[in-house]
Amino acid sequence: MSGGKTIxxxxxxxxxxxxxxxxxxTPTSGFHRFAPPGSGxxxxxxxxIKWYADWIKVSRPDLIYIEAPIAPSIMAGxxxxxxLMILIGLCFxxxxxxxxxxxxxxxxxxxxxxxxxFIGSRRMKSADAKRATVAKCQQLGWMGKSDRNDNQADxxxxxxYACACVDPQAATRTEPMxxxxxxxxxx
Length: 187
Prior knowledge:
Blueprint: E1 7-11, E2 15-21, E3 28-33, H1 41-58, E4 63-67, H2 72-75, H3 81-100, E5 105-109, H4 111-119, H5 126-140, H6 150-166, H7 176-186
Parallel strand pairs: 1-4, 4-5
Antiparallel strand pairs: 1-2, 2-3
């Protein structure tokens, strides 16, 4: 068991993926819908605040990593203003909530850096990258073979990236050469 810092990784959206653990350990993870489908921004924000308030009562991380929102100019034509406001607003909200509860180590991570670390490609199309991320999480034993939630997988990838940033020696190696050794050691 690692004595390092507990890292909470958040892939923020109306359905948020989360992963938490210390470098070198197997993370816990899941996903959570902040409000029913079709809800407005206020309900989504309220759901996010409630989730955080409940989470911080039972599990206090040392650091929080958040997948940074993609710049609106890059998303032009593939999203709308409401979706952009939600993504940017959730990021802003969680940074504020972390500060309010004394967690000062909040870091934004660019999705292309996370994917480069976790699946070895910074430029793969989004749908392909999501499938590759789910497959890598299953290969590592972090998600079951029938689990398909890409929000959870993205949070696990972000957690892995955060661990590599915070404690490279203890972090789980995700490159194919190291995966073979990890699976050999488990059998």
